[in-house]
User: What shape does this take?
Amino acid sequence: EDQVTQSPEALRLQEGESSSLNCSYTVSGLRGLFWYRQDPGKGPEFLFTLYSAGEEKEKERLKATLTKKESFLHITAPKPEDSATYLCAVQAGAAGNKLTFGGGTRVLVKP
Amino acid sequence: DAGITQSPRHKVTETGTPVTLRCHQTENHRYMYWYRQDPGHGLRLIHYSYGVKDTDKGEVSDGYSVSRSKTEDFLLTLESATSSQTSVYFCAIRGTEETQYFGPGTRLLVL
Assistant: This one.
């Protein structure tokens, strides 16, 4: 059974204080690892897809990396508008493109 | 914005009543998904569709049925609502590179 574990559950940062979120996974045959951002009361918003170990992707202050067992989402010099819940999901196998999600990391960036 | 709307956005109902949630997309995507999101469980797949009249179960399908008679609409029905089905329901479509894009969600309260 595919499993995704995110840590920490919650993270409080001062504006400008860089940090990393972890997503550990067990899956047979990873097809893709996805990061989403979710604001309160809204649907998840797609950020990145990573397909193979060693791959990295960046968007503004966010950088996602992937190894064979985990992914990291690095937030560099965060701003209050980066406050959100960040979700990680994995896709394995071919049947229906099903995603298995982790529980998320709630990030609060204080000015 | 992947052109996904969900209706209703909020609903309060009573135990034992049937409830239907609607997901509508405007971009002719083949794959559509229904998830529920609950504290402590993250996002979990209920059912998905890979074409008109083609559907399959996800990990938490008991008590739910779906229908897709047109490409643009994917309906989720709670046949006899229970309090355990109080949740936030999200619809998603599969876009390019197998990425799923989510709708705004429906908050359902079953009393």
Notes: The radius of gyration of chain B is 13 Å. The mean pLDDT of chain B is 95.
